[in-house]
């Protein structure tokens, strides 16, 4: 019988082998500042745990190479991810000397390679299974719940990342609030302004090219440069406009970051609104006009619902983009997770960088999945409207 191999599975198996055999699983440092020493899987874990993980990774590599059912691949990915999450905590406890509060244990390149391989396997399995949007959101909830349970259990307390967090817990949640406020606040502002502007561009064709060209031009300005360009005008407004400073308008801080994110957000919202409305079938509009609907009624009851999936796609782009760009706001005093990223870079403390980077990635990932689900939920309504 001919054995059939999965092409993506071969790539994942190679990643598993690289992470297992050639890259260190954990890094041990005597303190926060000194360079670390790499530790393999067998060196990072108690003998029984290390051997079991090696065997399990070998089995996982075989499963990924063969054309196994998608459900089996998802189960292997889930077990592999859970094992990695638990065992990296075990490595932290195992490598840290008893009573030593200065030692630092961090996940090394092998751990991240294995993590990426299992995430890729899970994504491939979910894509093949084609679950409904609600199921994907449920899988996201289960994943985040498992992560929260591991954090609450204290299993990762010996890891350097959690030691960095423990010394900055209050600041972390303050900056998290600023990050979310910047990302979602600028999104809401862009929707409030961008939707009417997109409708206007759709209705008034001569206006469309000019507005979209200006918004395209804004998109070409690097984010740091745009933050810098806004410092002078906002500083002038803070000094010369009564009450501006009282509401937080300043040359540095959250104000220029918010304005920059708002400006970056306008193009996807306006452009997708125009494209979505332009894609509404003419027959649907004519039928609504035949029923005696006014222009506003046609817009709200016919055109906007049919264009909603395309508009939501633009909003998804904006939210994921803003979650990432809000990190740079820390350079001008805007706060957010970027505070930890740039502090870590300045101190050559990679675990402090991860303290800001990992929550940013998780937020963007969760936002993308939830909004993708909303888009797919509205797509059948869109198709039904077109058919009718």
Question: Explain this structure to me?
Answer:
This protein has helices spanning 7-22, 41-44, 47-65, 70-95, 109-129, 133-153, 160-166, 169-203, 205-219, 223-240, 254-278, 282-290, 295-325, 338-347, 350-387, and strands at residues 26-29, 37-39, 104-107. Mean pLDDT is 86; it is low at 384-388. The protein contains 15 helices and three strands. A hairpin with a 7-residue loop joins strand 1 and strand 2 (37-39). A three-stranded antiparallel β-sheet has the order 2-1-3. Helices cover 76% and strands 3% of the residues. The chain is mostly helical and 388 residues long.
Summarize the structure.
A hairpin with a 7-residue loop joins strand 1 (26-29) and strand 2. The protein has helices at residues 7-22, 41-44, 47-65, 70-95, 109-129, 133-153, 160-166, 169-203, 205-219, 223-240, 254-278, 282-290, 295-325, 338-347, 350-387, and strands at 26-29, 37-39, 104-107.
Secondary-structure map:
Elements (H helix, E strand, L loop, with lengths): L6 H16 L3 E4 L7 E3 L1 H4 L2 H19 L4 H26 L8 E4 L1 H21 L3 H21 L6 H7 L2 H35 L1 H15 L3 H18 L13 H25 L3 H9 L4 H31 L12 H10 L2 H38 L1
Helix pairs in contact: 1-3, 1-5, 3-4, 4-5, 6-15, 7-15, 8-9, 8-11, 8-13, 9-11, 10-11, 11-13, 12-13, 13-15, 14-15
- Per DSSP E runs of 2 or more residues, the count of β-strands stands at 3
Residue windows where pLDDT falls under 50 for at least 5 positions: 384-388
Q: Mean pLDDT score, rounded?
A: 86
Broad structural category:
mainly alpha
Tally of DSSP helical segments: 15
Please give the largest β-sheet.
Answer: 3 strands, antiparallel
SSE ordering? HEEHHHEHHHHHHHHHHH
The level of helicity is over 70%
Terminal residue distance = 51 Å
Radius of gyration: 25 Å
**Strand arrangement across the biggest beta sheet:** 2-1-3
Q: Which of globular, elongated, flat, extended, rod-shaped describes the shape?
A: flat
Strand content: under 5%
